[in-house]
Design brief:
Layout: H1 21-35, H2 37-44, E1 53-54, H3 66-84, E2 94-95, H4 100-110, H5 119-143, E3 154-155, H6 159-174, E4 178-188, E5 193-194, E6 200-216, H7 219-226, E7 235-242, E8 253-256, E9 261-267, E10 270-275, H8 279-286, E11 291-298, E12 306-308, E13 315-320, E14 332-335, H9 341-348, H10 381-390, E15 394-407, E16 414-424, H11 429-441, E17 443-445, H12 448-459, E18 463-464, E19 466-467, E20 478-480, H13 490-504, H14 507-510, H15 514-518, E21 525-527, E22 531-532, H16 534-540, H17 543-546, E23 558-562, H18 569-581, E24 588-592, E25 595-596, H19 613-620, H20 622-631, E26 638-639, H21 642-664, H22 671-674, H23 683-704, H24 708-737, H25 743-763, H26 768-777, H27 786-789, H28 807-829, E27 839-845, H29 847-854, H30 860-864, E28 868-873, E29 890-896, E30 900-901, E31 908-909, H31 915-920, H32 924-931
Helix pairs in contact: 1-26, 3-20, 4-5, 6-13, 11-12, 16-18, 19-20, 20-21, 20-24, 21-24, 23-24, 23-25, 24-25, 25-26
Length: 940
């Protein structure tokens, strides 16, 4: 007999080497849908404590991008591992459906015809578009393997949610946090609407930097203030710097710091007032050398002195404000309360109210200046600079590059513009202190995000919640035509309106007959045409609304979104919850970074550096994309590229190949019949089970700390080092060559059976499609959905320290194995041997180590993968043998084994007395295994 293949127990499995994920995942999704897997999971945990992962509503506009995929996959990983931890984790997906981007899509689609559409028609088309986008995105998220209650998704445009938004407005008004004010807010001339803080992004912009002057209306007052003697008919000016020349027509005052010293200096025949701290720097900028300082006084002595506007018939007073700094400019700030938050605050103290000279399109209104009528404000910069030149008011003109607010939708410049808007009071000192106190009680991951939220709250102005568009939830107010005050029965009116909207949606407001609702008052009041900010809407979409609990306020256990949500959903949810319930809406907040390309650049269509999740899924499968998410440290910005995906595929192969080896060697294992008790297992199998137990404990801890990239590292180390490089290397011979029903093999199979269960459960939150495929191939697993309803595997165990070989001793043996492997690799490189089985190893050991190792004597060759291993005294070692640096009590000698190669196990053996063995060309061990006579092995 020369072919012994049929006498070997070679691996067999239907779990293929190639994943073929794009095809297999679709089949698995069909199974999950058919069996309603989400419902099965939820039902299996019905009496368990709930864990709520609140879905931050993505915007219903366009197909999902890589950032969407990152976010939803992270949520799904959390949901799945919390299920394993014994919680019931319901997950209801949410969508933001109102707002400007959708309305703009309709505007673009209908182009010139858009202006002819009725407002009702616009809303109807917006709704249809949003529903279509939700459908597409839902399909994309399902394809990622995200399990959720997809049939009962929550949309902000659901009538129930629209009504709830109205109810929250009523509660905020009742608590007196709502007011209407005319003050500068972020305004996008493309959107033609006010913008929230979260809708602003900052980019570098080139701007005009100009130094110019206002001439004093009364020189004598200034001369007296500085207490100087000078000739009559002198010209005194105040020197000002700005980067927004277009705001000059809106100037209503000049701000200076009351605590700064201000110089009066003489340059040629003109006199200028400017900050003492800035004088030297300004003179360098203006390239003026011959000057004379006439005197210095504090800013508070200049209050209310009037100066003439350079090209308008206006006199501007000096006002005092501590927002004026000395690190830039001249210490004197032209002040336009309609176009700046600080300017507005400064002017309020002096009862100087903003004049709005700019329309919603960013053009000057008529009768400001003949050269400016109907001009775009940014095109007017050059006109204004020329006007200053003509009036001999301009001292210096330059171009600078600085950070400037942009609309994140249109990427267009945002201006401050004073209009009547509805605000929520946030600036109250005590209210901000309350929010900060609550923030400190919330758990924030990463930790720096707590400081960031506190900082944002401290700096935050009042929240402008009104928008001037069609598609959104209306602000259901009636204001007095003369006084502008809300109707005295506003709260009861809003209640009635919310009931109407819950039945018929937002159209109920627009169709509302004012006379029927207000009666006689209808002629005195006008109906609001504003809609509410979409961040207000999403802030209302909280756990208390979506997962209601009887007589108890429901907080979400976790919010997880990108870092932009610090100013967005995290913020809006927090503010609304504290105003309405005096409680935080969430217990823990995780912030993840943005997706960037391999060069660290933010992904954008304009740069052409985006990677579509659909592209990766169609080519490699969703599990590859999920593994990329899990492998990334999401606390920072996350790189993705085709090269990175290739590395992820390598990691996936390591996990898949490990699972394949394990499955391939338990094809004939019947747990009820073949499972061995702990006392009957070989020591190396006990080590493998203990290693799996220790690894699982570490993995569970890392999951609980939300460190998924470390979970992956731990799993890969387990698969590639602990299993493939150590355990599999040692057990292959026993698995393949032992008699199929021997205890030696069943011991190994028992360990493998436990290991594959544990490994499959570990990876189930990360790569659920692959884990499900593995689970289906494990012998005796019939209820396939049990993978997602089970808990962490509980059949693993530790080995007693009193065992003949415990963890510490095994570690020492593996250290010796590593040292031997280095020498073997050297022999292979020198082409002295092709296989380690050609070798005989002689270990020269000192007394204590000899004592530890000698018990394994017969099994050592199986551990070191050689045909022989001899142990000798350290003192007998040849003098030319080098000491081992890591194991000083040992020397290693390698010799070619002088024997015959077994045709069955490929080990080399000495010629033996059994002629039949030699005729068959097999070693004595293989001869016995073929006959079913088991050889006794204890260790390996």
């Amino acid at each position: 007999m020369t072919n012994y293949k049929n006498t070997l127990n070679l691996p067999k499995t239907n779990f293929s080497m190639r994943g073929n994920l794009p095809h297999k995942e679709l089949q698995i999704l069909k199974e999950w849908k058919k069996n309603n897997l989400y419902k099965i999971i939820l039902h299996s945990k019905k009496n368990k404590k709930t864990f709520i992962v609140q879905d931050g509503p993505p915007y219903a506009n366009g197909k999902i991008h890589i950032g969407h995929a990152l976010n939803k996959i992270l949520k799904d990983i959390i949901i799945k591992f919390q299920n394993l931890s014994g919680y019931q984790v319901p997950f209801i997906p949410c969508w933001d459906c109102h707002g400007l981007p959708i309305e703009h899509k309709i505007e673009k689609k209908y182009s010139k015809k858009f202006k002819k559409l009725t407002k009702r028609n616009i809303r109807k088309k917006c709704k249809k578009y949003a529903l279509k986008q939700v459908k597409f995105q839902k399909e994309d998220f399902i394809r990622l393997g995200v399990l959720a209650d997809w049939k009962n998704s929550e949309l902000t445009m659901n009538y129930k949610n629209q009504a709830n938004i109205i109810k929250q407005i009523q509660k905020i008004n009742k608590k007196k946090f709502l007011y209407q004010g005319k003050k500068p807010i972020h305004w996008c001339i493309e959107c033609q609407s006010s913008l929230a803080e979260a809708e602003i992004e900052y980019q570098k912009k080139k701007s005009h930097s100009i130094y110019f002057s206002f001439q004093a209306s009364n020189n004598d007052v200034i001369i007296n203030k500085f207490n100087i003697k000078t000739q009559k008919n002198i010209q005194i000016y105040i020197l000002v710097w700005t980067t927004t020349p277009w705001t000059l027509p809106a100037s209503q005052a000049i701000s200076i710091n009351p605590n700064f010293l201000y110089n009066l200096i003489k340059i040629k025949e003109k006199y200028f007032i400017l900050s003492k701290n800035r004088t030297n720097e300004i003179l360098k900028i203006l390239k003026k050398k011959k000057i004379k300082i006439l005197g210095s006084i504090y800013g508070n002595q200049l209050e209310k002195i009037l100066f003439q506007h350079p090209f308008l018939k206006l006199k501007l007073p000096i006002i005092l404000s501590k927002h004026v700094t000395s690190d830039i400019g001249t210490g004197c700030v032209h002040t336009a309360p309609a176009h700046g938050e600080e300017d507005y605050k400064s002017c309020q103290k002096y009862k100087i109210f903003p004049k709005n000279i700019i329309d919603s399109f960013g053009k000057y209104k008529k009768n400001i200046h003949s050269q400016l009528n109907n001009k775009n404000i940014f095109q007017a910069n050059s006109i204004i600079i020329n006007l200053l030149k003509n009036k001999k008011s301009l001292l210096k003109e330059d171009i600078i590059k600085h950070s400037y607010p942009y609309c994140w939708r249109h990427k267009s410049i945002v201006i401050f513009r004073s209009t009547k808007q509805w605000f929520i009071k946030i600036k109250k000192k005590k209210f901000k202190e309350k929010i900060v106190k609550i923030i400190k009680n919330i758990s924030w991951i990463p930790n720096w995000t707590k400081k960031n939220m506190i900082s944002l709250i401290k700096k935050r102005p009042d929240w402008c919640i009104s928008r001037q568009r069609n598609w959104g939830v209306p602000l259901p107010f009636f204001t007095h035509k003369k006084t502008g005050k809300l109707h005295k029965k506003t709260n009861s009116l809003i209640k009635k309106i919310s009931i109407m909207i819950e039945k018929n949606g937002i159209e109920a407001w627009w169709k509302l007959d004012k006379e029927k609702l207000l009666g006689k008052d209808s002629k005195l009041y006008k109906k609001s045409h504003d809609i509410v900010d979409v961040w207000f809407e999403s802030g209302c979409m909280n756990a208390n609304l979506i997962y209601p609990k009887k007589n108890k306020y429901r907080k979400a256990d976790l919010y997880i979104e990108g870092s932009d949500q610090h100013r967005g959903w995290f913020m809006s949810s927090l503010i609304l919850s504290i105003i309405i319930k005096q409680k935080e809406p969430y217990k823990k907040v995780i912030t993840h970074g943005f997706t960037i390309d391999k060069n660290g650049k933010k992904m954008s269509k304009s740069l052409g550096n985006t990677i579509n999740p659909e592209e990766i899924i169609n080519k490699y499968g969703a599990d590859i994309l999920r593994l990329w998410v899990a492998s990334s440290n999401y606390s920072k910005d996350i790189s993705i590229s085709h090269e990175i995906i290739n590395h992820i595929i390598d990691s996936y192969r390591k996990i898949r190949n490990t699972a394949r080896f394990l499955l391939g060697n338990i094809y004939d294992f019947h747990p009820k019949k073949d499972f061995l008790k702990k006392d009957n297992l070989l020591k190396i199998d006990l080590w493998a089970i203990e290693k799996t137990f220790i690894t699982q404990k570490k993995i569970i801890k890392l999951y609980q700390e939300y460190k998924f990239h470390k979970v992956i590292k731990c799993i890969l180390h387990f698969c590639f080092i602990d299993m493939s490089s150590i355990y599999f290397d040692i057990i292959k011979d026993r698995l393949y060559t032992s008699h199929k029903d021997s205890c030696n093999r069943k011991s190994c199979q028992t360990a493998i059976y436990l290991i594959i269960h544990a490994l499959t459960i570990w990876i189930s939150p990360l790569i659920p499609f692959t884990s499900y495929e593995i689970w289906k191939n494990i012998p005796a697993n019939k209820n396939f959905h049990k993978l997602f309803t089970t808990k962490w595997f509980n059949k693993l165990f530790l080995v007693s320290k009193t065992e003949k070989l415990n963890k510490t001793q095994w570690n020492k043996i593996f250290l010796i194995k590593h040292a031997i492997n280095k020498l073997i690799e050297k022999k292979k490189k020198e082409k002295i041997i092709q296989s380690s089985l050609q070798l005989s190893i002689i270990l020269y050991l000192k007394k204590n180590l000899f004592k530890e190792i000698t018990t394994l004597k017969n099994d050592l060759k199986f551990i070191f993968l050689t045909s022989e291993c001899l142990l000798k005294k350290y003192s007998d070692a040849p003098k030319n043998l080098k000491k081992n640096k890591k194991i000083p009590d040992m020397k290693i000698d390698l010799k070619i084994f002088s024997g015959k190669k077994c045709k069955r196990c490929w080990n080399y053996y000495h010629f033996n007395k059994y002629k039949k063995n030699n005729i068959l060309n097999v070693c004595d061990r293989c001869y016995k295994n073929i006959l079913g006579k088991e050889t006794t092995r204890i260790f390996a």
